[in-house]
Design brief:
The chain is α+β, with helices and mostly antiparallel strands. 20% of the residues lie in helices and 30% in strands. The chain is built from 15 helices and 53 strands. It is globular and about 85 Å long.
Length: 915
């Protein structure tokens, strides 16, 4: 790609380049209109929600030919897109047919509105690319043009592409700054920031953006991230100052690197005449240790917090007129030449400011703060005045044990602690900058004399800002509370662009935890960009022999095949939900390599241990314990699961048209099933393993049980669940996930409701009865109480009770399957899922022997609905029979369900239920 400018001149002091912009030489590419029709303008429908690579107005993406998506808005039944036209230009004023200087797609006959590949001229860094779209409906009527959207490009993936140099100060949280003079305000200015450790950017004393803990976490010895900011409005004529406040974070050794926080940044400014000014990081920058420093080692159980020394605060350190002459010069930092990528994901941001519900004074200058609910984020605490040097300690925990004598309680903190050292004047306020806590309670000790009130304390709840994608309510209040707890827990566990088991103790993205909450996350949150980014992190950590680590970023912590199998499951289910073939293409070679490694470690078609020999888990965190010692049952789980996972790999091969691979995977799976049944089935007891719930479900789900034995084995499971375990689960992280998935698949939602609705141990309801606002690491509350072990039930609310499911044959919710579970114990269910095409609504309520269903199918999509009626004659829709209703087509009766196809629109069904 042609460089944006000629860096012909460099100042010896400031590291500033100037030059003249190179004109873009572009050729216009047009698509011949696909059909000739009379496209009359219509105000009855519109285009909205423009996205580039599934992001809203992304700045600095690294895709040279990005994919564009939009939604059709219409209330008409049967509304569908029949054609589209996309315009892309270098300014909004050029967004007109015949004027667009980057791309005019022409009128393209297609119903697709997702992942339309940009096919225009080559793009350049530093140039905004504005775009808009109009569509035609099923009647050949044209919409108005959409509101314009924009994206920009980042294209410096290697060291050789950068003019900037890596610099550091050497401490754990330094300030870095540089000055530059501008002859006038910029017409356009972008800064590209590549950091190891966290950073905050300041221009002329003003914080740029509202990102927290940037960049996201990745496998930093293989890939680092660049974040681009449009900083045009922050710069001015005359003297300007650029400042970075850095924090160590994952540069401390947890993500493949171990270095003091370092940054390289490149500010590129264009004035009204096209003259370019470029400022880069180099040894001419000034640096100083800041008023913040890290506590803790940034490792398992020792993530600590921060020490804030009030006397070292310098509020004006990033101002343009600040005198930095006494500061030291920056140190060059030599780092491995890894790939530099754009994050391509929503950032971590504050989504809620929380005030404590209770602040309790204890003896000896101690205070116990209750934030009212679990949260992950930072805190701002204003203290009464004290002498200079006075040190206050703050410990953060998710639960606490009261003192026997009414003294200081013991917090379940996992070493999360911060300190504030008083300056002795002015307002004394501690505020986290580059370390966070996952907690509900704060124990403040050695506080100065005076009162602490809820108004003195703020908690900033921070998460990767993925859009909400579901709603749910029903007549069972326990289920409603579980749904809320699941959604809140996911938010608590997603700071940093990945999903952890817990932020308090580990902060690693465990594959087992990510696997068990996969379907819930896909149902609850807009996670299209999220799984593209996080699965790439996993690929970066893959070993040369094909093995995956059990966490991302990679660590020495344990798991089993279910943990590594997350990559296969996430790739397949992401495809089902978003129809993103590019992710399948990218991830598939790594998935195949892992299965080839697994197959090479089989003996007589049974899986032997591979990758990390110390850990070989099946289920984990069942009510009986952590399950490391149950080798017999773990073996049953693993043998059955590998057959299950191989079928998922075969589906991916099918999607890519790799018939030979699919045949191979299915052959391996079948051989494993037969070997597992032959070697692990006890004919006398009709069980596998010890006959726990999990050892029934996994052989059934994995296809191990021969057809002639399936009813008998399932009957054994049902008896065990109902009689031996009194309707409670005996499963843990992975077993519960597999059970929910299998029971929903075979339509036994009654059994899911049996254990989901419980309030006694072990159950989600029991957690809520004990005051939980987030799910726990163990059913009994041991260890972390903000954890990702048991969130698999969440998907059932949307896919089971509301029945909203993607159609694997028409992925991405272009066609939706609605198959609710009409549980006898429930009188109503209201559920929705926000798909790529719009919101799908599925509500039902019971009125005696009649069920009323209200459905909404978004424009430009269709649905197949399973109605609770044994015959079409027992159904009316919008007051008419099925045969007379518009956009409703009868298909068949299947297992006491009347099956119909729907076009887009809103429908009210009344379904009689015969006895």
């Amino acid at each position: 790609m042609r460089p944006l400018h000629d860096c012909s001149r460099k100042s010896s002091r400031t590291g500033i380049f100037t030059g003249v912009a190179v004109a873009l030489t572009l050729s216009l590419v047009m698509t011949v209109p696909a059909r000739a029709v009379d496209f009359a303008d219509s105000g009855g429908f519109s285009v909205s929600d423009l996205r580039c690579e599934d992001l809203v107005d992304p700045i600095g993406i690294d895709i040279l030919k990005p994919r564009l998506s939009w939604r059709m808005q219409s209330s008409a039944n049967g509304a569908a897109q029949s054609a589209y036209q996309v315009l892309v230009a270098t300014s909004p004023g050029l967004l007109k047919p015949g004027s667009a200087d980057l791309w005019d797609s022409g009128i393209v006959t297609a119903s697709r509105s997702q992942h339309i590949l940009y096919a225009g001229k080559s793009l350049s860094r530093g140039i905004p690319h504005y775009w808009m779209v109009r569509i035609w409906n099923e009647m050949g009527e044209a919409s108005s043009w959409s509101t314009p959207a924009v994206w920009t490009l980042f294209d410096m993936p290697f060291n050789k592409d950068w003019q900037a140099e890596w610099i550091t100060e050497g401490s754990s949280s330094p300030w870095l700054r540089q000055s530059l003079e501008l002859t006038g305000p910029p017409a356009r200015a972008y800064i590209y920031v590549n950091a190891l450790g966290y950073f905050q950017l300041f221009i002329n004393g003003e914080r740029v953006g509202n990102d927290e803990f940037a960049p996201h976490v990745g496998q930093f010895d293989k890939r680092t991230f660049c974040i681009t900011y449009d900083v045009t409005k922050y710069l001015k004529k005359g003297k300007n100052a650029i400042g970075f406040w850095l924090g160590s974070g994952w540069s401390r050794g947890g993500a493949g690197v171990k270095t003091a926080p370092a940054v390289r940044a490149q500010l590129e400014i264009a004035d009204a005449q096209g003259e370019m000014t470029t400022l880069v990081t180099d040894a001419s920058w000034r640096v100083k240790a800041s008023s913040m420093a890290y506590l803790g080692e940034w490792k398992w159980g020792k993530y600590g917090g921060e020490v804030h020394t009030g006397s070292q605060d310098q509020p004006d350190w990033a101002d343009a007129d600040f005198d930095d002459s006494e500061w030291a010069m920056a140190k060059p930092d030599e780092l491995v030449d890894t790939i530099v990528s754009a994050e391509m994901l929503q950032r971590s941001r504050v989504i809620e400011t929380i005030t404590p519900v209770k602040v309790t004074s204890l003896s000896g200058g101690a205070w116990l703060v209750d934030m009212g609910k679990a949260m992950t984020g930072t805190f701002e605490i204003t203290f009464p005045k004290a002498e200079k040097g006075h040190n206050v300690s703050m410990v953060f925990g998710d639960s606490y044990t009261p003192s026997d004598n009414g003294g200081t309680p013991e917090l379940n903190s996992f070493g999360q602690a911060s300190e504030y050292i008083f300056r002795g004047s002015g307002t004394e306020t501690f505020k986290n900058r580059f370390n966070y806590a996952s907690c509900r309670y704060i124990l403040i000790t050695n506080a100065p004399e005076g009162e602490l009130t809820p108004g003195d304390i703020k908690g900033y709840f921070i998460t990767t800002q993925l859009p909400k994608a579901s709603t749910f309510s029903c007549s069972d209040e326990t289920l409603n509370e579980i749904y809320k707890m699941m959604e809140h827990t996911l938010r608590c566990l997603m700071l940093g662009g990945y999903q952890v088991d817990c932020h308090s103790r580990e902060r690693y993205g465990y594959g087992g935890d990510g696997h068990s909450s996969l379907d819930t996350t896909l149902c609850f949150l807009g996670a299209d960009a999220f799984y593209r980014k996080w699965t790439r992190d996993w690929l970066d950590g893959q070993k040369s022999d094909g093995g995956f680590t059990y966490t991302s970023p990679a660590s020495g912590h344990g798991g089993g095949p279910f943990w590594c199998g997350f990559i296969t499951a996430a790739t397949l289910k992401h495809y089902h939900h978003y129809g993103d073939l590019s992710l399948v293409k990218r991830n598939y070679p790594a998935i195949r390599k892992w299965f080839e490694l697994a197959q090479s470690k089989t003996v007589n078609d049974l899986q032997q241990k591979f990758t990390d020999q110390r850990w070989y888990l099946g289920d984990w965190a069942s009510p009986k314990g952590d399950d490391r010692s149950g080798e017999k049952d773990a073996d049953v789980f693993i043998q059955a699961y590998m057959g299950y996972a191989l079928e998922q790999a075969a589906e991916l091969a099918d999607v890519l048209g790799k018939a030979d691979d699919a045949k191979t995977f299915r052959g391996w799976a079948e051989a494993r099933r037969k070997a597992t049944h032959r070697n692990r089935f006890d004919k006398e007891s009709t069980t596998y393993g010890t006959g726990t719930q999990m050892t029934y479900i996994l052989p059934l789900a994995g296809g191990v049980v021969p057809e002639e034995l399936r009813d008998e084995v399932f009957a054994g499971f049902e008896k065990t669940l109902k009689e031996q375990d009194k309707g409670h689960l005996s499963t843990g992280l992975s077993g519960t996930y597999m059970m929910v998935q299998y029971l929903q698949q075979i339509g036994r939602d009654d059994l899911i409701y049996l254990f989901a609705s419980k309030k006694t141990f072990p159950s989600w309801g029991h957690m809520i009865e004990q005051g939980a606002t987030a799910t726990w690491e163990h059913w009994n509350g041991r260890a972390s109480r903000i954890h990702n072990c048991y969130n698999s039930i969440g998907s059932w609310f949307i896919q089971g009770l509301a029945g909203i499911r993607p159609d694997p044959e028409k992925p991405g919710f272009k066609h939706v399957i609605i198959k609710p579970a009409f549980i006898n114990e429930l009188s109503y269910v209201n559920g929705s899922h926000d798909s790529a095409y719009g919101t799908i609504q599925s509500d039902w309520k019971r009125d005696g022997d009649v069920i009323h269903m209200t459905l909404k199918i978004p424009a430009n999509s269709t649905a197949t609905v399973y109605l609770p009626a044994k015959a079409a004659a027992d159904v009316t829709v919008n007051g008419s029979s099925i045969q007379q209703a518009e956009q409703v087509n009868f298909r068949r009766v299947e297992k006491d369900r009347t099956v119909v196809d729907l076009g887009a629109g809103q429908y009210k069904f009344v379904c009689g239920q015969r006895r």
